[in-house]
Structure formats: structure tokens, C-alpha cells
Give the backbone structure.
Amino acid sequence: MSASEITKQAIIHSTKKLASEKPFQKISVLEIARHCGINRNTFYYYFTDKYDVVQCIFDQEISPVLQPHFQNGGLADSVSALCNHMKNEKALYVRLLEDNGHHCLRDLLVQYYTDFLIHKAQQHFEQHQMPDQHQEIAARFYAHGTVGMIGDWASRGMKIDSTLATGLIALSAQEKFFV
């Protein structure tokens, strides 16, 4: 691994460590830099801000967990895989999901699930000749609900079996409970 990659990974590791210990919104770039033994300018060489680090964590750690479900899985399988992954670093993900900053983890998950749901419902959308803008609105509605439930699950200590919760979400959609 190159020195550049080592520094980048040190920044990511420090960000994760600090976010596991205190609310993400209270962590500064200077604190992250000091934690991994670099100066602020070095941090900014690699990342634009602390949310750029969250994007990198998403790309390196969360996206590989979700991607297999994009083509072949359902929403419940995807959420279950994500929740199981989050349990491995519970303190980190609870704190990252609490944060509502610009480009926070919630935003990244909402965008992922919006794309996921548009992809999964493409045939249905085409059959009903739904305009792209309407597809986006419908998918974002369900994506926000899905990510909101993940956030609730995390904030309550990740105690509920995620398979049960996702199964109930899938059942409510299938049975049209709220339509």
C-alpha cells in the first residue's frame, strides 16, 4: 500500500473511531487530523470535508454489502444485509445515522434506496407509463421510509431482529395495507 493510501485509510480509521465515541456533528476536521497525526491541510488533500469521509466509508464498506441485492435481491434482503453489517460497528452507525448534515449517511442511503426502488419497479413504471419525475417521487417516498426505519432501529439499540422488521415492511407493501 502506498504512503498516500496509508494516510487516506488513517483518516478514515480516525473518523470512524471518533464517530464511535461521540456525535458526528461534534467532530471537527481538525480533531480528525490530530487523531491520526496529520495537519488539516493534509486532511484536505484527501477529502473536502468530514462528509466526504462518510462517502468513502459508504463506498468502501456499505456499497459492497448492498450491491449484490441491487440486481438479484429484494428490498427486505437488502435492508437485512445492511442491518447485519451495521451491527458489526454498532456505535459508529448509530452515531452516523443520528447526523443530519449535508451528504450524511442518511442522504447516501436514501439515494441508494431511491435508485434501488426505481430499478426494481422499472417494469411496473413502464407498464403504467409513469413519467421519470413521478418515478423519482414514489421511490424517494419509500426510500425515506426505509431509511427512517433503519434509523429508528439503530437508535433503539439494534435490538429488534432486522429480518422480522424488513419482513413486515415487505408484507405491508405486498398486501397494500396503507392503500
Summary: The mean pLDDT is 90. The first helix runs from residue 3 to 21. The two ends are 54 Å apart (CA to CA). The chain is about 75% helix and 0% strand.
